[in-house]
TrEMBL record:
The keyword Flavoprotein does not apply. The chain crosses the membrane at residues 12-28. This is Outer membrane protein assembly factor. Signal peptide: none annotated. The keyword Heme does not apply. Keywords: Cell outer membrane, Membrane, Signal, Transmembrane, Transmembrane helix. PROSITE patterns: PROKAR_LIPOPROTEIN. Residues 500-847 form the Bacterial surface antigen (D15) domain. Pfam families: Omp85 (PF01103). Gene3D superfamilies: membrane protein fhac: a member of the omp85/tpsb transporter family (2.40.160.50). It is found in: Membrane. It comes from the Bacteria. It comes from Chryseobacterium phosphatilyticum. One of its GO terms (cellular component) is outer membrane.
C-alpha cells in the first residue's frame, strides 16, 4: 500500500484502524471481566513432545478435560465476549433461570428469582438484552488444576492404548496473576513402543476358522506392527462384519466373542499376540442362519399393521397392504433379502438403501429377529424380516432462492419452484418438475465500464423409475443389490448472458446403478440437445472487439482495392462475402508486412469465433459415466476419487436422409437434420483426485483433469457447448472464466482470443488446506493448465496440441484462500496471481516480477473447488 494511496483517502483507513484498535482493546480488557479473584482464565493448552512426534499425536488434545473458550473471527472468543457483555449482577439469576424448562421461563419466574436473591428493585424487568447475550455467550473456562492432572493421566492412557507402554506425560501450569490468565503445558515423551512379536489365532469353530483363513490377507493385525489397540478394534469390526455377511446372525452381538490376548510376562517390548474367537465358555459351535419370512407392510399409520392390512405375496416376499396404490412388483425389486437364502447382513443394509432411494416411503420399522416358536425358545437358524413402510405425501412442493456468485455473472439470484409427484403409475415412479431462473449482470462487451442484465430461464421435467426401462429381465447381469434406476429427462432453457443468447432443448434416457457405496455407473441413451443461437445478426453488437478487428481489416483492404468498397457500400456484396474474399486473396496477403499479417491472422480467428458462437447445432449422443468415490468415508482417510466419462455423438443421425447447408466463411458445408447441422464427435473426460491427511486435519489435494474431444465426419470443430475453456473459481483461478488464457501459446489479439473454446484441456491443481479453527480454514494452491485444438485453423491461430511443446504452453497461477464453514455451507475466497502466461510474448511470460499483491484475481464461490 503506497503512502499516496493513504493520503488520498485517510478517513477510510482511519476508520479501519480505529475499529481494529477498538476490537483489540475489547478483546484484551473483557476476557477476564468475570474471572473471580484468585482464579485464572485458561487461554491455551500447549503440547510439547520431547522425542519424535507420532502420526496420532493430534488426537491427544481430545483427552484434555479443560479446553479454552472457542475462538471466532480468527482470534477472538466471541462467545466469551457476549457473556462478559451481559450485566454481571444478573449472572447468578440467569444461570438459575436457564435451568428451568423453556415453557416456564417467563416474567413471573424472573420476578420470583429477583425476590429470592433480594433484588426487589429489578422486579418487572425483562432483561431481554442480557438474556440474549447470556444465551449466545459462553462463560469463561476457569483453570482447574485437579482436572489438569487428570488430563495428563488420560493422555498417558491413550498413549499406552496406542502401543507406547512406557510413555511419560508431565504438565506445568503457567499462571499470570496480573492478567488473571493461565496456560497449561503438557510435556510428552513417547519412548520406545511395544511391538507384536508373533501373531497367532485360536478359533475352535472350524467354520469360522475357515472363513477367517480365506480372508486372512485382509487382516489389519500382523507380526512386527506396534501393538496399537485401535488396530485391534478395527480388526474386531472387520471380522464381525465378515461373519455377519457369511451367515452368522448376531455374531459378536455382545462384543465379548472376539478378543486378543497379549503375553507380556517375558518381554514388554516384543509381545506375542493371540486372537481368540469363542461363542461361549463351552466353545459351542456357531450355527449359520437363513432368511425365513420376509414381510413388507405398506400402511398409513404404524398401528395399521397387521390388523388393517390384507396379505399378498410375490416371489417368496409376503406383502401386507391397505389398498392397491402400489404394484407389488415395484416393491419386490427393492427387497434384496430372500426366503431360504443364507443370512447376510449386507443384504439387509442394501434393502434399506433401496427403499430410501425410491423416495416414496419412510421406514416406520425395520426389524430382523430369530423366529419365535410359540412357547419354545427362538429358533437359532431362521431369521424373519419385517419392513413397515409409510408412503410419503403424493405431492411435495419446494420453493427456494439461492444467491450465487460467478466471475461471469457477478452476484446473481436464482429462484426456483420444484414439484415432486410420487407414484405416478403405481410403480413408485416419481415425476419431478422444476421452473428456475438465474438473474444477474455481466460486463457489457461494448462498454466494459457498464453492466447489463443477464438471465437464464429453464424448465425441466424428470420421470424417475426405481428399475431399468428394458424389455427383458436384466437381473442376471445387473442384480437388484446394485439399486438400478432409470430416468427420462425433458427440458428447455433460454439464456441471455455471455455474448449472444441461446435457446436450448434437451431430452434423454438415463440408466444408473450403484455397485456399492464407492462405485457408480451411469449410461445415458438418446441424449439429445438442440442449441439455437438468438440474434445472429447482432454478433458484432455483443462481441464489440471482434467488430473493431473487422472494421480495421475492411479499412486496410479498401485501401488496397477501392472498387470493392463501392460494391460493399452499395450492397452488391455482403459482409460475409467480403470477409471470404479477403481471406482467400493470396495476392493481397503477399503485399502485407508482419503487422498486416498479424491483423489478417486475428481477423481469421475472429471469423472462426463468430461462426462457432452463432452456429445452431443438434447433438444426439450416448454417454457412459463411471465414478469411484472414497470422499467422506471414514475408512478412507486418504481418499481417492475417479470420474471417467465418454460421449459418442452423431452416428445415429448420420444414418438418416439429410441435406447440406452452404457452410460459412471459414466453415465448410455441413449435413443437416431439419435444417440444423448435427455434430459428430467422441469426447473423453477424466477427473482424478487424491487427498492426503496429515498433521491432524491438514489436507493436501492433488487433482488432474484430462479432457479430449475429437470431432469427425460432419464436424470440423467441437460444438461450443461441448468445448473446453479456461479459468474460473474451480479451474485455473488466476484467470477468470473466458479471461484470456489460451488456446495454447497463441499470439492472437486477446480481444478475439477471450471467447475461444477448444478440443483438448489439461488442468493440474495442487491445494494445501490448513484449518485454523472448526469454522475457518486457509489454503495455498497452484493451478496449471490450458486448452488446445487437435488441428491448426489454417493459420488463423497456432493452437494445435503437440507433445514436444505442450508443457511450455501451460498457464500457471498460484495464490491463497480462506474458507468459512457455517453449518453445511462452505464460503470460499481465493486470491490468485498469474505466475506464467503462455500467451504473452517470448521473454515476458514469467509474470512474477509483475505481481501486484493488492490486485489479485478474486474468486468468490461456495463449496470446495474439488
Amino acid at each position: 500500500m503506497s503512502c499516496k494511496h493513504y493520503k488520498n483517502s485517510p478517513q477510510k483507513y482511519y476508520k479501519i484502524i480505529s475499529f481494529a484498535t477498538f476490537v483489540g482493546l475489547l478483546y484484551a480488557c473483557s476476557t477476564t471481566k468475570k474471572v473471580p479473584d484468585g482464579e485464572y482464565l485458561l487461554t491455551k493448552n500447549n503440547f510439547e513432545f520431547e522425542d519424535k512426534r507420532e502420526f496420532f499425536d493430534d488426537e491427544l488434545k481430545d483427552y484434555v478435560q479443560q479446553k479454552p473458550n472457542k475462538k471466532q473471527l480468527l482470534f477472538m472468543p466471541l462467545g466469551l465476549a457476549f457473556y462478559n457483555m451481559a450485566n454481571p449482577k444478573y449472572d447468578t439469576i440467569l444461570n438459575e433461570y436457564m435451568t428451568y424448562p423453556g415453557e416456564m421461563r417467563n416474567q413471573k419466574l424472573r420476578d420470583s428469582l429477583f425476590l429470592k436473591y433480594n433484588m426487589k428493585s429489578s422486579v418487572g424487568k425483562s432483561l431481554l438484552f442480557d438474556r440474549l447475550l447470556h444465551n449466545w455467550g459462553t462463560p469463561p473456562v476457569i483453570l482447574d488444576q485437579g482436572r489438569t492432572e487428570k488430563s495428563a493421566e488420560s493422555i498417558k492412557k491413550r498413549l499406552i492404548y496406542r502401543g507406547f507402554w512406557d510413555a511419560d506425560v508431565k504438565f506445568k501450569n503457567k499462571l499470570d496473576s496480573a492478567s488473571k490468565k493461565a496456560t497449561v503445558d503438557y510435556l510428552i515423551r513417547h519412548n520406545d513402543p511395544t511391538y507384536i512379536k508373533d501373531y497367532y489365532f485360536n478359533i475352535p469353530d472350524q467354520g469360522i476358522k475357515q472363513i477367517y483363513n480365506n480372508h486372512i490377507d485382509k487382516t489389519l493385525v500382523r507380526a512386527g506392527q506396534i501393538l496399537d489397540q485401535t488396530a485391534l478394534e478395527k480388526e474386531v469390526t472387520r471380522i464381525t462384519d465378515l461373519m455377519k455377511e457369511s451367515g452368522y446372525y448376531r455374531f459378536n452381538s455382545t462384543n465379548d466373542e472376539i478378543y486378543f490376548v497379549a503375553d507380556s510376562l517375558k518381554n514388554k517390548k516384543q509381545v506375542p499376540l493371540t486372537l481368540e474367537i469363542h461363542k461361549d465358555s463351552l466353545d459351542r459351535p456357531y450355527k449359520k442362519a437363513t432368511f425365513g419370512n420376509i414381510d413388507v407392510a405398506i400402511v398409513d399409520e404404524a398401528s395399521d399393521y397387521p390388523k388393517n392390512t390384507v396379505k399378498d405375496s410375490l416371489r417368496r416376499i409376503r406383502f401386507h397392504k391397505m389398498n392397491d396404490k402400489y404394484k407389488l412388483s415395484s416393491l419386490w425389486r427393492a427387497i434384496i433379502v430372500d426366503n431360504k437364502q443364507l443370512f447376510d447382513q449386507q443384504k439387509l443394509d442394501v434393502t434399506k438403501r433401496n427403499l430410501m432411494t425410491m423416495n416414496n416411503f419412510s421406514i416406520v420399522k425395520a426389524r430382523d429377529s430369530l423366529r419365535q416358536g410359540g412357547m419354545t425358545t427362538p429358533n437359532d437358524s431362521i431369521v424373519d424380516v419385517l419392513y413397515v413402510l409409510k408412503p410419503l405425501p403424493k405431492y411435495e412442493l419446494k420453493v427456494g432462492t439461492d444467491l450465487n456468485y460467478s466471475q461471469i455473472l457477478n452476484l446473481g439470484i436464482s429462484p426456483s419452484v420444484d414439484l415432486t409427484t410420487r407414484n405416478v403409475f403405481r410403480g413408485a415412479e416419481n415425476l419431478s418438475t422444476s421452473l428456475s431462473g438465474t438473474f444477474g449482470s455481466i460486463r457489457s462487451t461494448g462498454d466494459i465500464d457498464k453492466r447489463v442484465l443477464a438471465y437464464e430461464l429453464s424448465a425441466q421435467a424428470s420421470l424417475n423409475f426405481p428399475r431399468l426401462l428394458l424389455p427383458f429381465n436384466y437381473y442376471k447381469f445387473i442384480p437388484k443389490r446394485y439399486t438400478p434406476t432409470s430416468s427420462i429427462l425433458l427440458g428447455a432453457s433460454i439464456q441471455n448472458n455471455i455474448g449472444l443468447g441461446r435457446l436450448n432443448f434437451n431430452t434423454g434416457l438415463n440408466y444408473q446403478a450403484n455397485v456399492n457405496e464407492q462405485v457408480y455407473h451411469k449410461l445415458t441413451l438418446f441424449n439429445t440437445q438442440i442449441s439455437l443461437t438468438k440474434n445472429k445478426n447482432a454478433y458484432y453488437d455483443y462481441f464489440f472487439n471482434d467488430g473493431l478487428v473487422r472494421d480495421e481489416m475492411f479499412s486496410k483492404y479498401f485501401a488496397y482495392d477501392p472498387t470493392i468498397e463501392t460494391k460493399y457500400r452499395s450492397g452488391q456484396i455482403s459482409m460475409d462475402q467480403l470477409s471470404q474474399t479477403i481471406i482467400e486473396d493470396n495476392t493481397y496477403r503477399g503485399t502485407l508486412n508482419q503487422q498486416g499479417l498479424d491483423l489478417l491472422t486475428t481477423f481469421r480467428g475472429s471469423l472462426i469465433n463468430k461462426e462457432r458462437q452463432t452456429q445452431d447445432v443438434l447433438i444426439s449422443s450416448m454417454i457412459y459415466n463411471f465414478v469411484y468415490n472414497e470422499i467422506g468415508k471414514k475408512e478412507y482417510p486418504n481418499a481417492f476419487y475417479f470420474n471417467g466419462k465418454v460421449e459418442l455423438a452423431g452416428n445415429i443421425l448420420s444414418l438418416f436422409n439429410k441435406r447440406s447447408n452452404d457452410g460459412g466463411v471459414v466453415m465448410g458445408p455441413q449435413k443437416t437434420i431439419f435444417g440444423i447441422p448435427y455434430a459428430q464427435f467422441v469426447k473423453f473426460d477424466i477427473d482424478t483426485r487424491k487427498y492426503f491427511k496429515f498433521n491432524g486435519n491438514q489436507t493436501l489435494v492433488l487433482r488432474q483433469f484430462i479432457g479430449v474431444g475429437i470431432p469427425y465426419g460432419n464436424s470440423d470443430d467441437m460444438p461450443i457447448i461441448k468445448s473446453y475453456f479456461n479459468g474460473g473459481s474451480n479451474d485455473i483461478r488466476a484467470w477468470v472464466a473466458f479471461g484470456g488464457l489460451g488456446p495454447a501459446d497463441s499470439q492472437v489479439d486477446e480481444r478475439v482470443r477471450t471467447y475461444m473454446t477448444n478440443d483438448i484441456k489439461l488442468t493440474t491443481n495442487i491445494e494445501y488446506r490448513i484449518p485454523f479453527t472448526s469454522m475457518y480454514e486457509g489454503a495455498l494452491f497452484t493451478d496449471i493448465g490450458n486448452t488446445w485444438s487437435l488441428r491448426n485453423h489454417n493459420d488463423a491461430h497456432q493452437d494445435q496440441f503437440r507433445f514436444n511443446k505442450f508443457l511450455g504452453q501451460m498457464g500457471i497461477g498460484s495464490g491463497f484462500g480462506l474458507r468459512v464453514n457455517v453449518a453445511y455451507i462452505t464460503f470460499r475466497l481465493d486470491f490468485a496471481y498469474k505466475i506464467y502466461d503462455p500467451n504473452k510474448a517470448e521473454g515476458d511470460r514469467w509474470r512474477i516480477k509483475n505481481i501486484q499483491p493488492f490486485k489479485p484475481t478474486l474468486n468468490i464461490a461456495f463449496g470446495y473447488p474439488f
